[in-house]
Design brief:
This protein has about 220 residues and is mainly α. Among the domains are: about 80 residues, Serine Threonine Protein Phosphatase 5, Tetratricopeptide repeat (Alpha Horseshoe); about 60 residues, no CATH class. The protein is built from eleven helices and no strands. α4 packs antiparallel against α5 and α5 runs antiparallel to α6. The longest helix is centred in the first third of the chain and has 23 residues.
């Protein structure tokens, strides 16, 4: 009985190490489709398939190494397709969402890569401009929590506060993040903007303009 169990485990391990022929066949089909129709949607789907395969078949180092390199190439192709759309077409929301998904897949699959923070920031900016504030927030938080030495880590913290203030309307959370910013980055170029935001947190635009004009008038006098 024990011998049968051992043999079964060895067989399963052998298949796991060699890879899943069904999953590899699907990937090959998606790669072929991408060659004939190189759009961002197909790139995002292929990226997701790469991620799923590498996570489910960690023993297949040969294919996983190949897929990891392919993922880097897809990110570059997706950026080029997004910023230089064919036939002069305007960038659409759907393409923006697909590029955000590609950034998300890449940064999740390769968290130790040197370009992860850059891709997180790019993804956050696109997500935010596309109205996907939850995703933008998760990217900003990832940057600030896991990439403190990234050149735009402080901006990520500021934009977290800005998003809570202006998009989520959570003034308490925004206040906490703005205060954290001033505590940790008092000399940053955005510090004055953060101080202004704190002083006017929750005030309607009309009141802010009125206060500004009053201060300006007093300064002239």
């Amino acid at each position: 009985m024990l011998q049968r169990i051992v043999i079964s485990c060895l067989v399963l391990c052998l298949f796991a190490c060699k890879g899943d022929s069904g999953a590899l066949g699907k990937i090959a089909q998606l790669e072929k489709e991408l060659e004939t129709t190189p759009n961002i949607e197909n790139m995002a789907e292929l990226m997701k398939s790469y991620q799923t395969y590498t996570s489910e078949h960690p023993g297949d180092t040969e294919n996983n190494d190949k897929f990891q390199k392919a993922m880097e190439a897809i990110v570059s192709k997706a950026e080029k397709a997004f910023y230089t759309p064919a036939n002069g077409k305007a960038v659409d929301r759907e393409s923006a969402n697909h590029l955000v998904d590609i950034y998300d897949t890449y940064t999740t699959s390769k968290p130790e890569a040197s370009n992860v923070a850059t891709y997180l920031y790019k993804g956050a900016e696109i997500a935010r401009s596309n109205g996907n504030f939850e995703k933008a927030m998760s990217f900003y938080k990832n940057i600030y929590d896991n990439h403190p030495n990234f050149e735009k880590a402080a901006q990520a913290l500021f934009l977290m506060g800005f998003t809570y203030e202006n998009d989520f309307k959570d003034l308490d959370k925004a206040k906490s993040l703005y205060e954290e910013f001033l505590q940790k980055h008092p000399e940053h170029e955005l510090a004055k903007s953060v101080e202004f935001s704190l002083q006017n947190l929750g005030k309607p635009a009309e009141e802010i303009i009125k206060d500004f004009e009053a201060k300006k008038k007093n300064n002239i006098q």
